[in-house]
Structure formats: C-alpha cells, structure tokens
Design goal:
single chain, 6 helices, 5-stranded antiparallel beta sheet, 2 domains, alpha+beta, Alpha-Beta Plaits, about 55% helix
C-alpha cells in the first residue's frame, strides 16, 4: 500500500530527528520476524531506552542527505528490509538490545551501524560493540575501583581497633 507524500515527509522528519539525536544507530535485517516478535523487540528496546523503527531505506537516505552529519555517509549497506535501533542516551544500547534479541531470533541479522559522527560500521564492529559493558556498568566499575582503597583502609583500621579493644578487655579481666 502506497503512503501519501505528507506521510513520507513526516517519516523523513521523524527519522531526521532520531538520527540527529542518536549516539548510535544500528540497522539489521528483519526478514522472517513475526508481528509478535517485533512487539517483543520493541518492548525490550523501550526498557533500554532504544527506539526501534522500520522505515523504507529510501526515506532513511533522504533523511540522511538532509543532515549535515550524515549527508556524505556511505549508504550502500542499506539494502533489503531493515529495522533501525536508535539511542540518544547510550552508545552501545542499540547493539546490546539487538544482539540479545538475535540470540533467540536468528532471523534478525546485523547489517551495520552509523555512529554519531556519521561513520559507518560493519556487522562485525556492531557485534563487538554489543559485547562492551553499558555506560551504567562502566560507571559502577569505576566507582567500585575508587571505593576499593577506602574499604581496604577501613577494614585494616577496624581490625586493629578490634585487636586493641580485645587486648584492653583481656588486661582488665585478668
């Protein structure tokens, strides 16, 4: 079913907005996914702050040509029926969400990604990104490392203080 020119313009504007705010846009082939699969993927993506869009590649190319960042980007990977996963918050969230979903749905196959500077990544680079820890996990690891010396000093002082109190208590009872 053909869509009107107004609807196409709305879609192009929406895709342009998503791309301009995106830290990473992952695109993957979605042939063979059922409507229920897509609903499940969208739910998982929403929980991770990722937007899933299925738009004609031609409209995505138009949106990219209107963007300063993406106007010179190679779009040769945009072939076939693709879905686009976009995140404005986390650089690896789209890759992680699609990678996790692809483990149980082999019909979903990575094609590539666009970075926030307009660079193109192939499927292998996207898979490598999916293996990286998320921003929240990295922050947790850094905080843990920063607190480690404090915990060590606290435990050492606590142990010495308990030893001193035990010694004083032993002297007092003797």
């Amino acid at each position: 079913m053909a869509i009107s020119k107004d609807k196409k313009n709305e879609l192009v504007a929406e895709v342009s907005e998503l791309l301009s705010n995106s830290k990473l846009t992952v695109f993957a082939q979605c042939n063979g996914l059922t409507v229920a699969d897509m609903q499940d993927l969208r739910r998982q993506a929403r929980e991770a702050g990722v937007v899933i869009k299925v738009v004609k590649n031609r409209l995505v190319r138009v949106a990219m040509s209107e963007s300063e960042t993406y106007k010179n980007t190679d779009t040769s990977l945009l072939t076939g029926q693709l879905l686009y996963a976009v995140s404005a918050e986390d650089e690896v969230a789209p890759a992680k969400v699609l990678d996790e979903f692809a483990k149980t749905h082999p019909a979903l196959v990575f094609t590539g990604a666009f970075g926030m500077e307009g660079e193109v990544m192939d499927a292998e680079a996207v898979k490598a990104l999916a293996k990286l820890p998320s921003r929240g996990e990295l922050v947790g690891q850094v905080v843990s490392m920063l607190l480690s010396p404090v915990n060590d000093v606290t435990n050492a002082l606590s142990g010495n203080l308990h030893g001193l109190l035990d010694g004083v208590e032993a002297k007092a009872s003797a």
